[in-house]
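Explain this one:

_____
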Amino acid sequence: MSGPLPGMTWPDTVRRLEDLGYSTVFLPDHFDEQFGPFTALAAAAIASPTITLGTLVLDNDYRHPFVTAKEVATLDVISEGRVELGVGAGWKKIDYEQSGITMDRPKVRVDRMIEGIEVMRRAFADGPFDFAGEHYTVTGYDGLPKPHRPGGPPLLVGGGAPRMLRWAGANADIVGVNPSIHSGEIDMEAARDGLAERIDQKVAWVKEGAGDRFDDLEINAWVPVVEVTDDAAGYAEAAAPLFDTTPDELLASPMTMIGSTGEIAERLQARRERWAYSYHVVQAPSVEALAPVVAQLSGT
């Protein structure tokens, strides 16, 4: 979610998501027309006593990890442990251009993100700590407040490239297996990087990093293309050229949900068996139409 559903206030939107059976409200972290994630999620914590509050994802480059750790811990205390902390290395070129923040090459951004996550984890732990890295130096800092959940919220890290996915497999609790966005904007190559055979390789990278802990991970999919229709084949035929792919490839991609509610439910079950996807994130315009699918699969 980037803001309220049409015709609703933000608290009413959060309560509507809860009523429809959704488990989590996620806020992205960009400089375009969206709510600020921490303020919006704090309000969501008050509006709903049960819904999980997630960031998908915070760009590590936009805030010092001291600042992020304090905001996340405060939100976790307010919500009594309902936070999921999604952190990323940054990808959206226009955010960097508009803000004047330097968009370093991917290796530097990922290195800095890894250090930032380590700083946050130590801030969430008991007692003061020191840290000396290439990008951050910490001396005698005791992050306060401490999160409601000992050790801090579950960590969500997503990506599409080998290093990020191996690292996420080894270190995160929730791994988003997504297309790579090398150009800094969602383009045709990013769309093709979400096709089934590429997801096979991406999940293999996660498994390499995770080793014996793979079965303990939750695998997350961001799903930008959703169409509830009784004519899945017709929709896919019309939409496939937009993604430079075939209708069958479009229907099989875990970045899409196309079909009747029953067909979508069947595809999600198949994706769980093939790739272990169990956590799907959809955009605001799709939440009402997908509610029957949520009801059918919730708890399975």
About this structure: The chain has a mean pLDDT of 96. The CA atoms of residues 228 and 289 lie 7 Å apart. The chain has twelve helices and twelve strands.
